[in-house]
Fold:
Amino acid sequence: MSHGVAPHLQVTDLVAGYVRGLPVVHGVSIEVDRREIVTLIGPNGAGKSTLLKAIAGLIASEKGRIRLGGRDVTALPAHRVVSSGIGFVPQTGNVFTTLTVHENLKVGAHLVRGSLNERLERAYALFPPLAARRPLRARALSGGERQMLAIARAVMADPTLLMLDEPTAGLAPRVVEEVFRQLRGLAEAGIAVLMVEQNARAALGVSDRGYVLTEGKNRFAGPARALLDDSRVAAAFLGGR
Ligand SMILES: Nc1ncnc2c1ncn2[C@@H]1O[C@H](COP(=O)(O)OP(=O)(O)OP(=O)(O)O)[C@@H](O)[C@H]1O
Ligand SMILES: [Mg+2]
Structure:
């Protein structure tokens, strides 16, 4: 958390949903700083994915503010969100299955200026398994490789905030660890990382802080360690794995 300086992402009292007047996010406030991993957990239907979609500009916010790097991005149209520094890896449909690994990465950079080749080489350096699979179509990748490609594709646009919706869903435990290790590396490189996870215990294990959302509202918040140790959080929200 920052002291004195506004956090990189600052969401204040956000109200959002799919039908105007029928919100599913009822005034949520969250903050994420650069170099931090923050995890959102909560029961099915709590509004976690909706919150990410609102921040990504995919659905309109009815009330509240979204600031990124001190700039108001609340009402930016979706096509301007990427160039504002927000990268979003949705839960499904996050790679083009008929395109190759290399083409997917190129598409990820289509909105940014500067040397494409440098970016591609940097992505392959960050995610070495992708380098070996460059000419393969994304549909030929394993689940873990596909998720890695989705993350690398988002990173091609140089986000300062990377949001991921359940990045480890359906992955084997070893691959889950690998994905979390990569996110840790991206945070260390200066990116603010915000993820939604059902794999709550493991996700909080690699996170700096966390938020529990229920029924579209903030329920608990704090350092990840404190949430893991909180018996009220553990009993209701850290079941399963
Ligand atoms: N595209 C949509 N159109 C209309 N309502 C939707 C849409 N997507 C989600 N909802 C509704 O919004 C509410 C919150 O859903 P959301 O997907 O944000 O929850 P979530 O916390 O991500 O849950 P989960 O853990 O199951 O992914 C639910 O009642 C859901 O039915
Ligand atoms: Mg969801």
